[in-house]
Amino acid sequence: MHSFETTIGRLRSEGFKLTPQRLSVIRYLIGNTSHPTAAVIYKDLKRKYPSLSFSTVYNTLNMLEKIGEVQSLHLFDDFLNYDPGTEAHHHFVCRSCNSIIDIFPRDAENVSLPEGDISGNRIESAQVVFKGMCRNCL
Amino acid sequence: MHSFETTIGRLRSEGFKLTPQRLSVIRYLIGNTSHPTAAVIYKDLKRKYPSLSFSTVYNTLNMLEKIGEVQSLHLFDDFLNYDPGTEAHHHFVCRSCNSIIDIFPRDAENVSLPEGDISGNRIESAQVVFKGMCRNCL
DNA sequence: CTCAAGTCAATAACTATTCTTAATACCGTT
DNA sequence: AACGGTATTAAGAATAGTTATTGACTTGAG
Questions:
Q1: Helix, strand, or coil (residue A42)
Q2: How far is the CA of A49 from the C1' of D8 (A)?
Q3: How far is Cα B29 from Cα B17, in angstroms, rounded to an integer?
Q4: Is A137 within the bounds of a domain?
């Protein structure tokens, strides 16, 4: 996700209205590296916006995903996690505490992925998911 | 998934009974590289076993996953795909035809992933998902 | 063959997400 | 500052893939 100003500028230019609900979700996500679920976002924002609806959280997340400001991650069976990261990166999932840790290219010099084609198929994007035990659980 | 004999041997040794339904699912999956969903497996086997139940397909798949004979893949939003591959490999997902293509290490010499630790987290497994256009859709 | 343990089919239940609807709030225009 | 068209909201119903429940049936060890 870009800065607050950049993000709301993009919303505006795409014709979306700036509602307090949307702004609160955006503020919640900027700089958030915890990969929250929709349920967690809803629960946390509900304190400040008691009338907030679940649908609104989902609608906002879907909208932000459509314009590329967040990414949904299918790392677990039953729910999605949302990642406000915009630059390409990978993820580490701890099998003990289930935390999701961003792995940026600068910290992953040993990760090298092909570009262009693989077995005749044209690659447009690639994502790596590591699983194991995180540093805190070790 | 291993050979038919090896797989049913593992079932037997784990204390599972060998029922015609389970054998049919196992036979269906061995050598199958199409990454079928539970729904597709059910539909196909229903012709030969008209009394087959959806639960049985799911139960069998979950059992096979528990003993490591299949792997469930969360590549799409609304359903799981099942992969009888046992050796480590990656996947290519076509955004046009939605097909899932196995990418084995021998075909992916440009893929290199770290082993051991990354940023202090201990890696136990790693999976790459490529997205793009498959050779047939190009 | 017998019988207990395990499995089956049918269907109800579950849960994350999406859809529906009437009421509301945003914002360009006045 | 107020208006009005229209996108958005809140609440709850609906959806769909998967899992759990239940009572009858089957498997396979002894």
A1: helix
A2: 16
A3: 18
A4: no
Task: Give A5-51 pLDDT, tens digit per residue.
Answer: 999 999 999 999 999 999 999 999 999 999 999 999 999 999 999 99
Question: By the CB < 8 Å criterion, does B126 face chain A?
Answer: yes
Strand pairing category for A100-103 and A90-94: antiparallel
CATH label of the domain that carries residue A18: 1.10.10.10
Domain span at residue A37 reads 4-83
Evaluate whether B42 touches B57 at the Cβ level (below 8 Å): yes
Judge whether A138 lies within some domain: no
Tell me which residue in B75, B111, B125 faces A113 most closely, judged by beta carbons. B111
Mark whether B28 and B67 lie in a shared domain.
yes
B residues 52-111 lying closer than 8 A (beta carbon) to A: 74-75, 77, 92, 94-95, 101, 103, 107-108, 110-111
Per-residue b/e over B88-125, b at no fewer than 16 CB within 10 Å?
ebbbbbbeeeeebbebeeeebeebebbeeebeebbbee
Please check whether residue B67 is in contact with residue B8, taking contact to mean a CB–CB distance below 8 angstroms.
no
The count of domains in chain A is: 2
For chain B, 138 residues long, give each residue's pLDDT as a single digit of tens. Answer: 888 888 988 888 888 999 999 999 999 999 999 999 999 999 999 998 898 999 999 999 999 999 899 999 999 988 999 999 878 899 999 999 999 999 998 888 889 999 999 999 999 999 999 999 999 998
